[in-house]
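[#protein-structures] MJ: dropping Inosine/xanthosine triphosphatase here for a structure pass
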Amino acid sequence: MTQQHISILVGSNNPVKIAAARDAIGQYFPDAHIECHGMHAPSLVADQPMTEAETKLGAINRAKFCQQHAIATHQPANFYIAMEGGVDQFDHGAATFAYMAIIHQDKLSIGRSALLPLPPKVFQALEAGEELGHVMDRLFNTENIKQKGGAIGLLTQGLATRGSIYTQAIVLAMAPFIKPAFFAE
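AK: finished. structure tokens for Inosine/xanthosine triphosphatase:
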């Protein structure tokens, strides 16, 4: 019996995002050999998306770029996965979240992470043009937190991390590919 081989191309070189994609897909296919690589993929949105719509579009753009690159280089993958973190102002206050875009066999599935409330002074810094990772590094005296636990890890005392939230959101976004008969039109 041959082992199933699954290839994933992630629209980022951030090790947190690559690990989240590998971990999420690995939960669905625990016996498979999973090959997961990242690449720079432009979001075509602001470096710090400030709305849900912009954040979702950034994830979709990154996933589509990965797919187009793979097709152009004749190195197709089973899954093209992109994550885009963003913030928005909700009726309960400012929060950060991420959108996931997964392409499999030319079908797109979108998922979103849980919301993390943001302190008002953090959101004000974002409105002034800063990126969340930089603001958190300054406030918590950390370095490059976006490639580690993220704002999520800092504000939850490590009970949740950027990686754990991304992994969960990817697991959820995979549902249409895992149970396609239930999602058929």
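MJ: nice. DSSP finds eight helices and six strands in the chain.
AK: one more thing. Residues 5-115+162-183 form a domain with the Maf protein fold (CATH 3.90.950.10).
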